[in-house]
Amino acid sequence: LIARRTADYWLRNDETALPSAMLTKGGFENAIRAVLAVGGSTNAVLHIPAIARRAGVDITVEDFDRLSRDTPFLGKFRPASAHFPSDLGRAGGIWAVMKELRQGGLVCEDGPTVTGKRVAEVLDEAENRDPQIIAEFEKPLHPEGGIRVLRGNLGCALVKASGVVEKMWQHRGPARVFVCEEDARDALAAGRIAPGDVVVVNWEGPAGGPGMRELSLLAATAQGMGLAESVSFVTDGRYSGATRGPCIGHVDPEAAKGGPIGLAEDGD
């Protein structure tokens, strides 16, 4: 339906209906804020800048960091809560989320949409039908967005903070270092990972994976073993939006490029 509407709109020869009219700095920032407001996947930090680059728009991880600091967290969904994405749809969907953000002046309203209406027009029609699903702007679940950019002695990294319990926002423990996901998963299954450990999986980045492998199965295994609130994971690979627990990914520079994560040793 969306594709048909978009095609019909383009056939009017209206330049504002071209993809380039929607793929603007403001449009991308709207997309980033939507991801941050509902605790979306850290993979957005890969995909959105990649799309933006093709459109000739400069979007980097710095934009996620900047926008996350004043984008309130308005919705938490499985596996981080009992709510499903379908509940978000029934509550009014992403447009209802954006309408809440509009109250803080956090939405670029001037751009076109695939409906043929301007962003402002769509927001006027949107409605938050369930504040239990989509928190109100004045009563956010947290004042900052669901994805955080982290920096430290391993470089730059990402974490989906919305899936991490508060007691694990600070964690100190001995490193258990592995050079691939399979080795780490075997260690978990064999009981060689103990509560309090920090599991470091390197050589899983874009060059080392190769292809920046997704370590969600490792995180899910830890969750099933009851370790999601006591064991941290750090990797130059990535995770999916279904990840729960203190899973720090996208560490850059990666081990295969000489990053400090490749120097980590057991017991550090």
Summarize model confidence as the mean pLDDT.
91
Q: Give the class from helix and strand content and strand pairing.
A: alpha/beta
Ends distance:
54 Å
Q: Can you give the helix content as a percent range?
A: 25-40%
Instruction: Determine the number of helices (DSSP H or I, runs of at least 4 residues).
Output: 10
- Compute the gyration radius: what is it? 20 Å
Q: Largest sheet, if any?
A: 6 strands, mixed
* Secondary-structure element pattern, one letter each: HHHHHHHHEEEHEHEE
Shape: globular
Which regions contain 5 or more consecutive residues with pLDDT less than 50?
A: none
Strand order of the largest sheet: 1-2-6-5-4-3
Beta-strand share of residues: 5-15%
**Total number of strands:** 6
Fold and architecture overview:
This protein is globular. It starts with a helix and ends in a 16-residue tail after the last strand. It has helices at 2-10, 19-22, 25-37, 44-54, 61-68, 85-90, 93-102, 119-125, 181-189, 216-224; strands at 147-152, 155-160, 175-178, 198-201, 232-235, 247-252. It has a six-stranded mixed sheet. It has 268 residues and is an alpha/beta fold. The relative contact order is 0.13. It contains ten helices and six strands, in the order H-H-H-H-H-H-H-H-E-E-E-H-E-H-E-E.
Describe this structure in a few short sentences.
Helix content is 32%, strand content 11%.
What labels describe this entry?
10 helices, globular, alpha/beta, single chain, six-stranded mixed beta sheet, 268 residues
Protein topology:
Layout: H1 2-10, H2 19-22, H3 25-37, H4 44-54, H5 61-68, H6 85-90, H7 93-102, H8 119-125, E1 147-152, E2 155-160, E3 175-178, H9 181-189, E4 198-201, H10 216-224, E5 232-235, E6 247-252
Parallel strand pairs: 3-4, 4-5, 5-6
Antiparallel strand pairs: 1-2, 2-6
